[in-house]
Amino acid sequence: MDPPMRERITVYIENLQRRIVNVLQELDHDAPPFDIVDWSRDEGGRGRACTFTSPVTTSILEKAAVNISMIHGNLPPSAVQKIAMEHPSVSYSKDTSSNLPFFAAGISLIIHPRNPNVPSAHANYRYFEIKPGTNTSETPQAWWFGGITDLTPSYLFEDDFRHFHRTLKEACDPYGSALYPVFKQNCDEYFFLKHHNEHRGIGGLRFDNLCEEPHSLLKDASAPRPQTAEEIFGFVRNLGDAFIPSYIPILSNRSSTGWSPKMRRWQLIRRGRYVEFNLIYDRGTKFGLAVPGVQVENVLASLPEEARWEYMSDLGIEGDGSEESKMVDVLKYPRSWI
């Protein structure tokens, strides 16, 4: 018999974290190593934060975080009510006053390179289960996987974007041809800054509540999709394993290209938009800050070290023919990269 899913996902994200950190450190031998901190949560659980910041202006990375967490505890009735709306298998009534045990595990990473020609990268893959009791051998009352990955560039390099999306599609296709286009569109719709009428970046994939129950985004019941826990876990592993081949070649190839103070200025303006999205719209940030006993530094680790907000900036004016405006055009009107 296979170990419980909570144990299997823990082993997987620990190994994936190690692989990603090792690859990033191999790219820049002269930069300081990642700072590794193991932490525990009083309410239950533990994690490992691998973070990088460098005062060395020649380093490839400016800031990065590859963090994992495996936490457990009890959900209050208000949280149970919200989950029950999306998962019929979760029991809830207005008379419910007791907490419900849960377990959550995931890996979350963000990479902010120094060179403006290299996009920032983000990914998060997670598993959540609600159990009828505290015995880990019991069958969960409900479980699901979620995931998201995307690129946030400052400048337009179409070949890089096609490579990124093609790699994600190849990771999806063994589990159904409908997955990539549906989850790609979901990602485009999610990373949208309404007040600027533009997207945060060029997207990637996004899905949530992926379990044995029919998924709201996969409306064609006849289309192939992962349905069992084993198949869905395999799908999530495929996407997690795809991070290195989808992004590291871009990071490696573009980091040696030249850039100017103007390009750095534009990069910091784009990072300002990144901050706006994370603090105003991002569901993960809001959820993380609401969890009792949360490591706040880890929740906010995705924010860049430096960002810029200019009043009525003269950079990135739509239609002026500049390299900055070409990127803005893509951010306002998402493309299909495959």
TrEMBL record:
InterPro entries referenced in this protein's UniProt entry, alphabetically: Coprogen_oxidase_aer (IPR001260), Coprogen_oxidase_aer_sf (IPR036406)
Entry keyword annotation includes Oxidoreductase: yes
Annotated signal sequence range: none
Keyword entries, A-Z: Oxidoreductase, Porphyrin biosynthesis
Pathways per UniProt: Porphyrin-containing compound metabolism; protoporphyrin-IX biosynthesis; protoporphyrinogen-IX from coproporphyrinogen-III (O2 route): step 1/1
EC number: 1.3.3.3
Subunit structure: Homodimer.
Record's protein name: coproporphyrinogen oxidase
Species whose genome carries this gene: Armillaria gallica
Lineage of source species: Eukaryota, Fungi, Dikarya, Basidiomycota, Agaricomycotina
